[in-house]
């Protein structure tokens, strides 16, 4: 397996820039997820890494070799598509064996490698069957087997679970991660599903409108999003924002919102103008004596917890509260915030402002 480096990658289709100056490094043997909404450029980036698209500008290095303009067949990369792309007239065995036979691998080695791959994927009992009668989950295992059997330098997967129903997706998500850990593969995985990304990834690249907004571990992205887009895209429910106009200076530990002084982590940057205070639902609780007030708009029961939606003068926020906490629609309640977990943003640019939260000293 090998590492992958992308330097200042850009892809232009006429006047439209699908990918804009993207740079990131995928470490050898890691599970790297490219996450973002439809049309953000993640699949285009994956296709450039695969050699299915050529970049307008930039470089792609595979195992320190510049492969930017090499054809896909010369990159030693295996691609797994969303729609399986299997040969319906061939058996499971012959589907998996196809890339080896096309490379002229000796028959004995083909048999050994196909059987080894089938054991890894737990589909030995399906080798003689045709693929047309298989379930979606088994077909995806066959598609994975055809990629694994080649023993490539890296696996590229474009929403491989997108065609499966919810139950199969949960099952295959866990199996994909276990498979990755067993074979030590370098894997690049594209999805728009944040739950898949958080469950699978060692590192995530969050993309928006052709731009890589942040590359970090799942916990880093959840706890310290680099932008308001990332904060809003990650989390269920996502981060809420209290918007206000004011001034933040280095060293300050409080901000004033509508006359209420709220504690925040010590700030490291200065910002003036339109600001936003970001808070996760689990960092909000009810407190009668708090100067920050909100009116209950709705509550969603989730068993042991409830998601309570509150309207405030500076925006709607959500709180994750124990189900035992009584709330009624229209109640005017005080809101206490977990100060050390709050983030400040420059609302005009969407950029997160650095604070003590970014020093790595504060736990979850």
What this model shows, in words?
The protein has 364 residues and is α+β, with helices and mostly antiparallel strands. It folds into 2 domains: 4-223, P-loop containing nucleotide triphosphate hydrolases (Rossmann fold, 3-Layer(aba) Sandwich), CATH 3.40.50; 228-359, Beta Barrel (OB fold (Dihydrolipoamide Acetyltransferase, E2P)), CATH 2.40.50. 23% of the residues lie in helices and 35% in strands. The protein is built from 8 helices and 21 strands. It has helices at 42-50, 92-102, 107-121, 136-148, 166-183, 194-200, 218-223, 228-233, and strands at 4-13, 16-26, 31-35, 57-62, 65-66, 77-80, 154-158, 187-191, 203-208, 211-216, 240-248, 254-257, 260-263, 271-279, 284-286, 293-301, 305-312, 315-322, 332-337, 343-346, 352-353. The strands form 5 sheets. A 6-stranded mixed β-sheet has the order 6-7-8-3-9-10, sandwiched between helices. Strands 15-19-16-17-18 form a 5-stranded antiparallel β-sheet, with no helix packed on it. A 4-stranded antiparallel β-sheet has the order 2-1-4-5, with helices on one face. Helix 2 (92-102) crosses helix 3, helix 2 (92-102) packs parallel to helix 4 (136-148) and helix 3 (107-121) packs across helix 4 (136-148). The longest helix is centred in the middle third of the chain and has 18 residues, at 166-183. It is elongated, with a radius of gyration of 24 Å. The model has no long low-confidence stretch (mean pLDDT 90).
